[in-house]
């Protein structure tokens, strides 16, 4: 292979406005699926290494797992803005507006650095108070706070990679982010072994390995974007906030980011309730989340496809194709959810045993896994529908629906309904089951409302362009 070949581009984008759509959706989605699965495998390796080889054992696993909702809540706002920039790029690509694409690219990459520094500072300095707000047990809060602080030191480079990847996805390039993730992931696993097994650094080693590997992936995506010869080529000297591009990005991105943030806050509150069941329930929940993600990642790849495909067709004003794509994208996501759930449920305890050897943690984890995964296809359809709505240029309505349908209902469940159920059920495993039942009900409510919004948005767009 010629030196630097992975950075060479032929300046071609994926035309998402013409068929065959099924083939193009799969070509778009497969690298994202592989990227996601690789990331899960790398994360799973992190959990296995810290759980099996760290002196802190299950407490280290619990510490890392208990930080997920907090980290996601703070990162989600910035990630929503990144997705917003991807939608704007996709729409301008579809409209063949070259100058707007260039301005959005440079605005977005500079924005990623600004957000990374600002949100990273909040996460670093507020780690311990926020973890206590989540009812993190005293046994793990020290380890959890250490992990969060190191993680957020690397947030700027993480956002550079994620914003860059969102831009590349919007023009149909999902392969290079896969390659860069693979390189960084292998490095991450190697550094985990070195820091945790070799240097006995426990959660600090895992966090440090994550930051270093994310720095590598960010560097690779920047180098690649600098070497492109299409409208997404990055010139460091041209990094600038363009008002119109920023406004368009914020119009889509802020509601998307707030939705993701509030979504994560609801998970944070749920995590706080999980924490009251003790460290073993926390370990089981962390393991179950890792296993369930092997279903979520493929469905989520179709969510990413929906924003790009619908975005390009919206820019190209191809209304009838938008309708066709909405049905096709939802069908693919739901089929993935149903098919992938079967082996996960059947062999769930075996998969959980990879992460923890404690029987009680496995029982908690399997309870979590079953109640989450069986209706997971509903979550897939919900996310894809939201992606379609945003691709059509509407972002505020799906945010409000998600706040009501997901977050509002989960708050009601956790603070009002669940305490009532808990008082009637003595078995802790049954209590745990009823806690996670809120996922299924909130997904069903939200999907119904999002479908209504999607239909109205499509009709409005059709009226505008015909």
Mean pLDDT: 87
Instruction: Kindly give the count of domains.
Output: 1
Number of strand elements: 0
Radius of gyration over all CA atoms, rounded:
21 Å
Low-confidence stretches: none
Instruction: Provide the helix percentage.
Output: over 70%
Number of helices: 17
Shape: globular
Strand content: under 5%
Order of helices and strands: HHHHHHHHHHHHHHHHH
Kindly report the oligomeric state of this protein: single chain
Give the biggest beta sheet: none
Care to describe what's here?
The protein has 466 residues and is an all-alpha fold. The protein has one domain (18-461). It is 84% helix and 0% strand. It is built from 17 helices and no strands. It has helices at 21-53, 58-66, 68-94, 98-125, 127-133, 138-153, 155-170, 175-198, 202-227, 243-275, 279-315, 319-346, 348-355, 359-373, 376-391, 396-424, 428-465. Helix 12 (319-346) runs antiparallel to helix 14 (359-373) and helix 14 packs parallel to helix 17 (428-465). It starts with 20 loop residues before the first helix and ends with a helix. The relative contact order is 0.13.
Task: Write the topology of this structure.
Layout: H1 21-53, H2 58-66, H3 68-94, H4 98-125, H5 127-133, H6 138-153, H7 155-170, H8 175-198, H9 202-227, H10 243-275, H11 279-315, H12 319-346, H13 348-355, H14 359-373, H15 376-391, H16 396-424, H17 428-465
Helix pairs in contact: 1-2, 1-8, 1-11, 2-6, 2-11, 3-4, 3-7, 3-10, 3-11, 4-6, 4-7, 5-6, 6-9, 7-9, 8-9, 10-16, 11-12, 11-13, 11-14, 11-15, 12-14, 12-15, 12-17, 13-14, 14-17, 15-17, 16-17
């Amino acid at each position: 292979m010629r030196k630097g070949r992975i950075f060479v581009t032929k300046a071609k984008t994926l035309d998402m406005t013409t068929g065959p759509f099924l083939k193009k959706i799969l070509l778009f989605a497969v690298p994202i699926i592989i990227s996601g699965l690789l990331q899960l495998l790398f994360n799973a390796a992190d959990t296995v290494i810290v759980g099996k080889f760290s002196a802190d054992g299950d407490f280290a696993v619990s510490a890392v797992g208990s930080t997920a909702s907090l980290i996601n809540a703070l990162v989600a706002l910035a990630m929503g803005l990144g997705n917003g920039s991807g939608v704007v790029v996709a729409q301008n690509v579809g409209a063949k507006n070259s100058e707007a694409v260039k301005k959005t690219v440079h605005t977005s990459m500079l924005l990623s650095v600004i957000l990374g520094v600002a949100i990273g500072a909040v996460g670093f300095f507020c780690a311990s108070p926020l973890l206590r707000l989540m009812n993190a047990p005293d046994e793990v809060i020290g380890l959890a706070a250490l992990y969060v602080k190191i993680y957020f030191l690397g947030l700027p480079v993480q956002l550079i990679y994620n914003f860059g990847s969102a831009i590349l996805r919007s023009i149909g390039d999902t392969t290079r982010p896969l390659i860069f993730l693979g390189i960084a992931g292998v490095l991450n696993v190697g550094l985990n072994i070195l820091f945790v097994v070799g240097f006995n650094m426990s959660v600090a080693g895992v966090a440090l390995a994550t930051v270093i590997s994310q720095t590598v992936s960010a560097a690779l995506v920047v180098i690649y974007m600098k070497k492109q010869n299409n409208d997404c080529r990055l010139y460091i000297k041209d990094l600038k906030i363009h008002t119109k591009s920023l406004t368009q990005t914020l119009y889509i991105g802020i509601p998307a980011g707030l939705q993701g943030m509030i979504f994560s806050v609801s998970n944070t509150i749920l995590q706080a309730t999980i924490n009251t069941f003790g460290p073993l329930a926390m370990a089981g929940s962390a393991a179950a989340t890792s296993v369930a993600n092997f279903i979520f990642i493929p469905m989520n790849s179709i969510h990413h496809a929906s924003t790009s495909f619908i975005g390009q067709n919206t820019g190209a004003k191809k209304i009838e194709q938008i309708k066709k794509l909405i049905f096709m994208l939802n069908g693919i996501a739901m089929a993935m959810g149903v098919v992938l759930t079967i082996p996960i449920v059947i062999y769930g305890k075996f998969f959980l045993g990879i992460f923890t050897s404690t029987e009680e943690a496995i029982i908690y984890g399997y309870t979590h896994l079953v109640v989450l995964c069986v209706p997971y296809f509903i979550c897939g359809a919900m996310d894809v529908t939201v992606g379609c709505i945003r691709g059509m240029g509407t972002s505020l309505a799906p945010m409000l629906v998600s706040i009501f349908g997901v977050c509002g209902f989960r708050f009601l469940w956790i603070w009002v309904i669940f305490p009532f159920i808990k008082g009637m059920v003595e078995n802790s495993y049954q209590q745990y089951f009823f806690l996670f039942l809120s996922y299924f009900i909130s997904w069903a409510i939200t999907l119904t409302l999002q479908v209504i919004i999607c239909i109205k948005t499509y009709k409005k767009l059709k009226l505008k362009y015909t």
